[in-house]
Specification:
By secondary structure, the chain is mainly beta. The chain contains 3 helices and 15 strands. The longest helix is centred in the N-terminal third of the chain and has 15 residues. It starts with 7 loop residues before the first strand and ends with a strand. The relative contact order is 0.20. The N terminus is likely disordered.
């Protein structure tokens, strides 16, 4: 059950979205993600990445710590590491010490990118998952952290109250069941949205690690699983389809002042 060690891993991701209700809607998508080991201490040497990937600098693929966490400009992954660790230590009220944090997120492509969901995996010194955090962002510039604390792998799914207005096709009401786990070279993530005791939306993401090299980056780009602004474009394309289906729209509410909330354990379905 120990996570793979290393600085940055590259994944192929298969994503499905299922909307249930008066107007059903389904779509699937393929993209790529990176799993970044947020180091607490400076590395003794600069790690070697594929030449088509850079940290903060313009390239075919790039990633920086800015716009994660508190939506402040973090200069290094170490700053982001401290933010997440402080969020867990100050808010979870437990004695489980975080030893490492890994962030699953989507890289920018030619300088363009949008992360509707990033997931932090927090481990103890034995390599066991103790907390996970869903960092959810909407296209209106707001963000919320759903903290799943004191993880028990037998009951890894947790329930949270919806706090962030994500889509104009749903109100800021209801609850989520959130699940995320990373075992060996695979990651599984699911989001189930319940409104008025009805499961109205399900999103699943299955990720498989592949070698992080220039060849796989180019393959992803040529197969269009990666292209500039893909996720942002797809979000608005699906919104347009829902609008054509005459799905009701909700007015954007004021930004949520509380930027984090906590899950409650539930049995895995």
């Amino acid at each position: 059950m120990k996570p793979i060690t290393g600085d940055i891993k590259f994944f192929e991701a298969n994503i499905t979205h299922q909307r249930n209700g008066e107007k059903n809607h389904f779509f699937k998508n393929k993209t790529n993600a990176v799993l970044i080991d947020l180091k607490n201490k400076s590395l003794p040497k600069i790690p070697k990445y594929p030449s088509l990937f850079s940290l903060k600098k313009f390239n075919l693929l790039t990633w920086s710590a800015s716009k994660h966490g508190s939506q402040c400009e973090f200069s290094t992954s170490n700053d982001l590491y401290k933010f997440i660790k402080n969020l867990c230590n100050n808010k979870t009220k437990d004695n489980k010490e975080i030893h490492s944090i890994k962030l699953l997120t989507f890289p920018k492509v030619l300088g363009f990118g949008f992360n509707p969901l990033s997931v932090y995996f927090c481990y103890d010194k034995r390599g066991l998952l103790i907390h996970s955090i869903f960092e959810v962002r909407n296209t209106f510039g707001d963000m919320h952290h759903y903290v799943l604390r004191n993880i028990n792998l037998k009951k890894i799914t947790q329930k949270t109250t919806k706090k962030l207005f994500v889509s104009p096709f749903y109100p800021k009401k209801g609850s989520y069941k959130l699940f995320a786990n990373y075992v060996h070279d695979k990651i599984m993530i699911s989001v189930e949205y319940t409104l008025q005791n009805k499961k109205v939306f399900i999103a699943n993401m299955k990720l498989q690690e592949v070698k992080f090299n220039n060849l796989n980056i180019l393959k992803a780009f040529l197969k269009c699983s990666l292209y500039p602004g893909k996720i942002w474009i797809n979000i608005h394309l699906q919104a347009l389809i829902l609008w054509f289906k005459r799905v009701s729209l909700y007015k954007i509410p004021p930004s949520e002042k509380i930027k984090h909330s906590f899950g409650i354990e539930v049995s895995k379905d």
